[in-house]
Amino acid sequence: MNVLSTAINGVYIIEPKVFNDSRGWFMESYSKIKLPEINADFVQDNHSYSENKGILRGIHFQNGKYAQAKLVRCIAGKVLDVAIDLRKYSPTYKKWVSVELSAENKRMFYIPRGFGHGFVTLTDNVEFVYKADNYYNYESDRSIRYNDSEINVDWQVENPILSDKDLNAPLLKDSDCDFVYKI
């Protein structure tokens, strides 16, 4: 696996080795031994389906002891995936990085704890899967408004399709996000 650093320390793009032959292809989607940069003990896998192009899911995170690191990938269609540093006092606080993930490029994106996460579908019929290193906890589930001007993510879509939760999410300055950068 090829691990690519991003502009934010600890956030990685992972390019798996894909072995093709006349029958199709094979790849490892995760190997703890081959990805020492990922310091996570994954305990839950999630899978979502988005029917239409332009669906935006995010910016999501879990507060407190329920924070999650995620290893995400797109297994059908194409998305723009975004990680936002929400750790107060971090040198990259409120900065974001994005990557295009698709069934074709087979790339993965590692997002550590302390980050918000979101994606927008660039095609119809998108399936998105990810590993999390902590279980989902309803009481700790949080969102930040996708178009918060303090963060200013370029989602590459003019009028995204949003859930009520995401449409009514607070701005970062009004949220109770409790992430703090630790050296």
CATH class: Mainly Beta
SS content category? mainly beta
The rounded Rg comes to 16 Å
Return the average pLDDT rounded to an integer: 97
Total strands: the figure is 13
Largest sheet: 6 strands, antiparallel
Strand residues, percent:
35-45%
Instruction: State the end-to-end CA separation.
Output: 28 Å
Any low-confidence stretches, pLDDT <50, length ≥5?
none
What is the total domain count?
1
CATH superfamily: Jelly Rolls
Return the CATH topology.
Answer: Jelly Rolls
H/E element string? Answer: EEEEEEEEEEEEEH
Number of helices: 1
Helix content, binned percent: under 10%
CATH architecture: Sandwich
Order of strands, widest sheet: 1-2-10-7-12-5
Describe the structure.
The longest helix is centred in the last third of the chain and has 4 residues. This protein starts with a strand and ends in a 16-residue tail after the last helix. Strand 1 and strand 2 form a beta hairpin. With 183 residues, the protein is mostly beta strands. It has one domain: Jelly Rolls (Sandwich), CATH 2.60.120.10. It contains one helix and 13 strands. The chain is globular, with a radius of gyration of 16 Å. 2% of the residues lie in helices and 40% in strands.
